[in-house]
Amino acid sequence: xxxxxNLQSAAHIAAxxxxxxxxxxxCETLLAALxxxxxxxxxxxxxxxxxxxxxxxxxxxxxxxxxxxGVSPSLASGELELAQRVAQLIGIRHLxxxxxxxxxxxxxxxxxxxxxxxxxxxxxxxxxxxAELEAGFTLVNGANLDDLGDYRxxxxxxxxxxxxxxxxxxxxxxxxxxxxxxxxxxxVWDKPxxxxxxxxxxxxxxxxxxxxxxxxxxxxxLRARGLATVRVRYxxxxxxxxxxxxxxxxxxxxxxxxxxxxxxxxxxxxxFITLDLEGFRSGSLNTLVEISLPS
Length: 295
Fold this sequence. Notes:
Layout: H1 4-10, H2 21-35, E1 40-43, H3 48-61, E2 65-71, H4 79-90, E3 93-98, H5 105-108, H6 114-132, E4 138-140, H7 154-160, H8 166-169, H9 174-183, H10 209-223, E5 231-235, E6 239-243, H11 249-253, H12 255-268, E7 272-275
Parallel strand pairs: 1-2, 1-4, 2-3, 6-7
Antiparallel strand pairs: 5-6
């Protein structure tokens, strides 16, 4: 990690003039929108979307901006440390909340609205934090325009808690977000999407800390071998379904990788290990449920 001097100087790189004109205009609109929300608290996950919102909030509001990260067994290894690093780089004040979504039977039973119950817990705790700090800050998240066309039960929880989505409101697509993150030299600008570990558990199978630890251990083992994009899906009977980019399938099937991979996943508690020949697909478990998106 860079020293504190370098981190502080990097945190103030914000020259929208060098951005493409359309994106520079969106950037200015975003900063203006956040000024109107003063003070604000950003739900910072460690991903690129929330990192951009945290950066913009700090540029717009300075000490009136706060970043908050929820921590539970559903957070993958290294994600908290990454969120802390990003917050330090930006210069924004950062607090950690230990969320208790596993206390909710609705979360544990893992129906297709699981994410709603998770976000409800996070936003409820952020509401309580607002009361404890006696600060009337606005809650904001990192949802972008592309998210509005996907199945996102968490957006319902956001609406119920008056959480704002400044990226979506200002017309930012995912590619806009990555471009602005790169411009601001945020280290997560090209980070692959990394939803919570619970999203790997097939709907209808209970979400437990033990199962999430199995998934986390398997994914960390694969990432240590160069697979930046990987999902280990948990299915009934302790079955692991591995999704990797199509070009990596042959590598996993090679004896020098397959044998230790099987041994590792069995040591973690999986009884069956399968490789999805269709390759990585974000949100593939959503094909198991019927969903209706708003028109």
